[in-house]
Write a structure and sequence with these properties.
Length: 185
């Protein structure tokens, strides 16, 4: 199983809406008591075993729009079938704080997911979408997703990142996507 949180690697992007996937992965690593130890496949990642199953948890270091390069490199190196790749990412089409888990689907408006789907030549993999809401006019979308989360949204999204991380940790232990989907509501 490969669990990938999407974001941008530079420090200036820490705490931005577009790094929601990274922030969920950080919370997941805390829950599991592990750190990203390996550097390769255009990612920082850790490999662990749960219930005799290999789990790779990763943050691509490719920048958001090229996330597929890291996902393909990791899945190829560790022979992870597409159906066992779980991607966590921000979604402007969901209200801030919502979590939506799907077994598969389109990339929607997310360029990182578009790149992953294109390079995998598939959209048949599960995903955890973290709602970040939409910008208020006249703010442009790119300015919004790259802005730092503040105020009421920060408190709400911190709880969302924590909840998503716990859902993923439970998924790692039980390998039951339907349960994770039910529990996310």
């Amino acid at each position: 199983m490969l669990i990938v949180g999407l974001g941008n690697p530079d420090k200036k992007y820490d705490g931005t809406y577009h790094n929601a996937g990274f922030m969920v992965i950080d919370k997941l690593l805390d829950i599991l008591g592990v750190t990203l130890k390996e550097d390769g496949c255009r990612s920082k990642y850790v490999t662990l075993y749960k219930n005799s199953k290999k789990i790779i948890i990763a943050k691509p270091m490719t920048y958001m729009n090229l996330s597929g390069e890291a996902v393909v490199a990791l899945s190829s190196r560790y022979n992870v079938p597409v159906s066992e790749i779980l991607v966590v990412y921000d979604d402007i089409d969901l209200p801030a704080g919502d979590i939506r888990i799907r077994k598969n689907g389109s990339a929607g408006t997310h360029n990182g997911m578009r790149n992953i789907c294109a390079l995998l030549n598939s959209n048949e993999f599960p995903r955890v979408r973290i709602g970040i809401g939409k910008p208020q006019p006249p703010m442009q979308l790119v300015d919004y997703v790259l802005s730092h989360i503040k105020g009421e949204n920060k408190e709400k999204l911190d709880k969302t990142f924590e909840k998503a991380a716990h859902l993923i940790a439970d998924f790692i232990n039980h390998n039951d996507l339907d349960k994770m989907m039910r529990d996310s509501k």
